[in-house]
Amino acid sequence: MTRTTVTAGRALAALALAAPILAGCGVLPALPGPEPHDLVPSSVPGAEPTETGNLSPDGFDQARRMAVRIRNVGCDSLSTGSGFAIDATTLITNRHVVADSADLQLSTYDGRDIAATAASTASLADLAIVRTVDELPAFPELAEADPEPGDAVTVVGYPQGGQLTVTSGQVMGSTTDPLNENLGQVLVTDAPVEPGSSGSAVLDAEGRVIGVVYAKNVDDMSFIVPVSTLRSMLADEAMFVASPTCAG
């Protein structure tokens, strides 16, 4: 799939969010709750992207190997999302991607199915951890610091539950999280995302993770949990609790 064309949004003066936020990268109900409810089922990955965004060829190869497609089969719903490995048997995604699941089905860029053993979610931010039985193909380095405004970023994920897609843009700045007020500051970028992009890794030019996609607004600005928040939450096990299933 060729890279989605970046459509410049209006300038975010002081990054005040006058436009409504579309939770979970689509026109969806407010969080928390299961979402999205109108996505097509995921399918076997199609042709590889022909664009590498802001990544080098080696960086792109690493990125596609660590990206994971997530299919959430609920008791009466089906949704898709994205995630990425942080070690051989652990991946990161969004809380709303794994919410109310009866079964989480994971697949890698080469069509391999990976069994999930457990999922846990954070209450402070729209983040979740999923543990796997089999080892994931690769995992990236987490950046040491958040990016600065103007820095180039690349999003690697599975929008609409389809094939692996790469989009690119830049950091526009930061703002108070419009969905999780206690979280603090989140990043705003103009990298295009769609339903199913939720949980995608956001990478810098060296292929390091600088954040996690979780929402966008009507101006097509995407919202990112920054890597500093991800790092601090991963360092405190109490930040994550077992994710409830749709039956429990």
From TrEMBL:
GO MF, one annotated term: serine-type endopeptidase activity
Annotated keywords: Signal
Any one Pfam family match given in the protein's UniProt record, by short name: Trypsin_2
Gene Ontology terms describing biological process: proteolysis
Disordered: region residues: 36-59
InterPro entries: Peptidase_S1_PA (IPR009003), Peptidase_S1C (IPR001940)
Membrane spanning residue stretches: none
Domain of life assignment: Bacteria
Signal peptide positions (record): 1-23
Protein name: Trypsin-like peptidase domain-containing protein
